[in-house]
Amino acid sequence: MSDKVYTDYFYNSEDFDKNHGMGYQDLHMPEGVEAQPLIVPPVLEPDKQEGNDVWFTIESQEGEFQFLPGKKTHTWGYNFPVLGKTMVLKTGQHVHVTLKNSLPELTTYHWHGMEVPGPGADGACHSPVYPGEEKHIDFTVDQPAALTWLHAHPCPSTAEHVWMGLAMGVVITDDNEAKLPIPKTYGKDEFPIILQDRIFHEDNQFNYKADYNPMGIFGEVPVINAVVKPYVDVTTQKVRLLFLGGSNRREWRLHFTDDLVMTQIAGDDSFLEHPVKATKLLIAPGERQQVVVDFGNYQEGDVVNLYTDDFKLVEFRIHKYEKDDSVIPDTLFTPHDPEVNPEAEVRKVTMDNHNMINNRLFAMDRIDMKQTLMSTEYWDVTNTNDKANGMLHPFHIHGAHFLVVSRDGKEPYPNERNVYKDTVDVAPQETVRLKVYFQNAGIFMYHCHIIEHEDAGMMAQIQIVDPKEPDKKYDLMDMETLTKAFAEERGIPMDEVWCPGMDTEGMETKGVDHTMDSLSGASHH
User: Fold this and answer.
1) Is Oxidoreductase one of the keywords (predicted)?
2) Model confidence pLDDT, tens digit, residues 414-433
3) Mapped to the 3 state alphabet, what secondary structure does 263-329 carry?
4) Is 1 exposed, middle or buried (0-12, 13-18, 19+ CB in 10 A)?
């Protein structure tokens, strides 16, 4: 492994969210909060397992949770009051899932980072599960070891549902990971770190409508694995941290006391080909990055802190540990790097303002692009925000992983080379070239993962066409049907339904011409 240590965030600091107005909030620690152990979400036990088949039930449910002193906060979660239990899957397994909605309104179950068929299994807005209903999906895990995640995705209320707590880790393991000499004992030397922030109102309650900002909501209080002031008891020399950017808007700029080196070993959807050593790490909404931290230079009783900027997020309290001389291999994973289809034009995707893709607002029943199943193509993704007022936009594709080819024609950042990604930060006036292919047919979304931005319309849809079924049709949700459902569930007239982003898309899906000059073309305008 190279001895080179990178000491910056790679991104230009003038593009960081804190340098623009747009409602930025510094984090603060409320009075009276005592340090508590980091919650390690328990592993979700399967309902049953037979050979290579495994069955789970995931229930969206209401709950209460003690974030702050005083009254508990009303929350939503998966099989848990808030967030959820960690689902562990293995490459090659055939997974059967019962999706059970015990919430008072419809929701969906989106497998962020999982390569599953769409729109049904993918679980975006076309796959609602109504209150009191159960829905059954199944898929085969056909991807390498990674931290993926499950979160609600009912456009245009995705941000509100995630804000209420609907997010959980989905860990994929494989034979390659099992052989690597890295920490992998969950809850002892391997910890998920779900990075979120929240605003607490009277009696410690959430009030998403009061806080809504179409530019994205910054919470004022850090909430890490649902703990406001967490600490980790370190009992091994080396610790593996699985970071998940679970906030609606905030990007996390992480570093340790003494600029302790982090060895990054994985990105969104795979291990890195080669580990990268760094003292700083930027994690955008939707991104996952895994690091190994060696506390070998610290003694029993020492405390090492994890910060974002200059704000302390997590204390690592060092206890007695055994010496660990294990060495992370130079090569962790070899990605499949397919040849690009020479007949395919480069697709042009622009993220415009805070609410459009290719200068169009999202419409649920419009297909914006088509691509052939297993055809590898270049996507040039451009952030058209101006440098003075723009922001980093994390670009996410459902149902596929991609390789980052270049940034403005130059090499990608060291920690995004030869690693499968599904979310990538794009700076104002920057173009990032991706190599994209889909191994499942269906309809999938691509969007900014600042969740208020996707709700406001910075989202589009691609149909992946299987040549064996070129004319296959899909049932798509539309805004009118969704609004009617929310109205019935809330017992109010349709014109009184408030959904974040609806003021932008409105009901304009009715009567809009959804045809395009060339759906299969490389771009649209």
Assistant:
1) yes
2) 999 999 999 999 999 999 99
3) EEEECCCCEEEEEEEECCEEECCCCEEEEEEECCCCCCCCEEEEEECCEEEEEEEECCCCCCCCCCC
4) middle
Q: How far from the centroid of its chain's Cα atoms is residue 161's Cα? A: 14
Q: Is the pLDDT of residue 507 over 70?
A: no
Amino acid at 312: K
Per 3-state DSSP, what percentage of the chain is helix, strand, and coil (rounded to 5)? 10, 35, 50
Res 390: pLDDT: 85
* Residue 391: exposure state from Cβ atoms within 10 A (0-12, 13-18, ≥19): buried
Distance CA 171, CA 168 (A): 10
Stretch 320-335: mean pLDDT: 97
Half-sphere exposure at residue 237, Cβ-oriented, CA atoms within 13 angstroms: 9
pLDDT value at position 513? Answer: 30
Q: What is the pTM of this model?
A: 0.94
427 token code pair: 């700076």
- Structure-block tokens of residue 60: 């969206």
CB 128 within 8 A of CB 477: yes
Residues 84 and 150 sit within 8 Å (Cβ to Cβ)? yes
Give how far Cα 233 sits from Cα of 86, 162, 239, 316, Å: 20, 29, 11, 6
Phi, then psi, of 13 in degrees rounded to 5: -65, -25
CB-based contacts of 97, cutoff 8 Å, min separation 6: 55, 56, 57, 58, 109, 136, 137, 138
CA distances from 492 to 483, 489, 498 (A): 11, 8, 10
Other Cβ atoms closer than 10 A to 464: 23
- CA proximity to 386, closest of 358, 410, 351: 351
Q: Quick count: other Cβ atoms within 10 Å of Cβ 393? A: 28
Q: Are the C-beta atoms of residues 167 and 285 closer than 8 Å to each other?
A: no
DSSP H or E stretch at residue 503: helix 502-505
Question: Which residue in this structure is represented by tokens 């456009």?
Answer: 155
Say how far apart CA 147 and CA 139 lie, in whole Å: 17
